[in-house]
TrEMBL record:
<protein>
    <submittedName>
        <fullName>Quinone oxidoreductase-like protein 1 isoform X3</fullName>
    </submittedName>
</protein>
<dbReference type="InterPro" id="IPR013154">
    <property type="entry name" value="ADH-like_N"/>
</dbReference>
<feature type="domain" description="Enoyl reductase (ER)">
    <location>
        <begin position="10"/>
        <end position="301"/>
    </location>
</feature>
<dbReference type="InterPro" id="IPR042633">
    <property type="entry name" value="CRYZL1"/>
</dbReference>
<dbReference type="Pfam" id="PF08240">
    <property type="entry name" value="ADH_N"/>
</dbReference>
<dbReference type="InterPro" id="IPR011032">
    <property type="entry name" value="GroES-like_sf"/>
</dbReference>
<dbReference type="InterPro" id="IPR036291">
    <property type="entry name" value="NAD(P)-bd_dom_sf"/>
</dbReference>
<dbReference type="InterPro" id="IPR020843">
    <property type="entry name" value="ER"/>
</dbReference>
Length: 317
């Protein structure tokens, strides 16, 4: 049985992908589940994080978001039984690649797949679904009546976050990086309160949000990255599509929550003072947060995803 792995060159400049023959899986015991893979999503491999976590090795398994059928369970498994349809995310230290026929995984990294969700949809949305739910539920405590700014709403993360926010009864504002993205967002139902087209670099996100909220500012911001420096120090593409950190602080309302994906966010003393006066908070959305905690390990996560039948389905880790 073969699996797909990636290998970094000695200079760390080149990555190659190789198929390797895998040994037979060990006997399924304790809390482990043997799973026949039906679909696997390909997401970016964060080599920088692997280096920081001291998890680098010669060959690293490829494909972590998987969906499939349970073949066998260990004697301590309590959530699953053979023939169950499941979906999950393999941990960073998994020895098994998702791109193979059969994997062995701890039950806490899996959840039952809703019947009306296809294998491909399940594997393709589970990661961004968990990210969106973590951002809106755990990091910003979204509730009915709140106003939310979701940057780059036509992205996978943005689209799921918009649906979750609408499901909670929030007022949603979003940005679009192209005419196609703008048209896509304008076709959504329920409708967005406002779609801000930033593709030409002329739209003022802060002014648009303050106008939409009557000058109060938005309660929650989920960004897709921000500009940290002046125009002379930023790449042209980043200048055009991303708001400056000062714009985010300006449009944030009193008691607001800023959830950022910018891992190198730098706040100067005046920025911190402005956030202090507003009683606002800043939270970091780490893609791997559910895999970096040995205590949590996926148990606390619940994800609401949009099913293909139009109903909102609840997936509980």
């Amino acid at each position: 049985m073969k699996g797909l792995y990636f290998q970094k060159s000695s200079t760390n400049e080149e990555i190659t992908f190789v198929f390797q023959e895998r040994e037979n899986l060990p006997i399924t015991e304790d809390n482990y589940v043997k799973l026949q893979v039906k679909a696997c999503a390909l997401s970016q491999i964060n080599t920088k994080l692997l280096a920081e976590m001291k998890m680098e090795k010669e060959f690293f398994p490829v494909g972590r978001e998987i969906a499939g059928i349970v073949l066998d369970v260990g004697n301590k498994v309590s959530f699953f039984q053979p023939d169950d349809e499941v979906v999950g995310i393999l941990p960073l230290d998994s020895e098994d690649p998702g791109l193979c026929e059969v994997v062995r995984v701890h039950e806490h990294y899996l959840v039952h797949k809703p019947e009306k969700v296809t294998w491909t949809e399940a594997a393709g949305t589970i990661r961004d679904g968990v990210r969106a739910y973590t951002a809106l539920h755990y990091l910003s405590h979204l509730s009915s009546g709140k106003s939310v700014l979701i940057m780059d709403g036509a992205s996978a993360l943005g689209m799921i976050a918009i649906q979750l926010a609408h499901h909670r009864g929030a007022k949603v504002i979003s940005t679009a990086g192209s005419l196609e993205d703008k048209q896509c967002l304008e076709r959504l139902r329920p409708s967005l309160a406002r779609v801000i087209d930033v593709s030409n670099g002329k739209a003022h996100v802060a002014e648009s949000c303050l106008e939409e909220t009557g000058g109060l500012g938005v309660d929650i911001v989920l960004d897709a990255g921000v500009r940290l420096y002046s125009k002379d120090d930023e790449p042209a593409v980043k200048l055009q599509l991303l708001p400056h950190k000062h714009d985010i602080i300006t449009l944030l309302g009193v008691g607001g929550h800023w959830v950022t994906t910018e891992e190198n966010l730098q706040l100067d003393p005046p920025d911190s003072h402005c956030l202090f006066l507003k009683g606002a908070t800043v939270a970091f959305l780490n893609d791997e947060v559910w895999n970096l905690s040995n205590v949590q390990q996926g148990k606390y996560l619940s994800t609401y995803l949009k099913g293909c039948d139009g109903e909102v389905v609840k997936w509980c880790f």
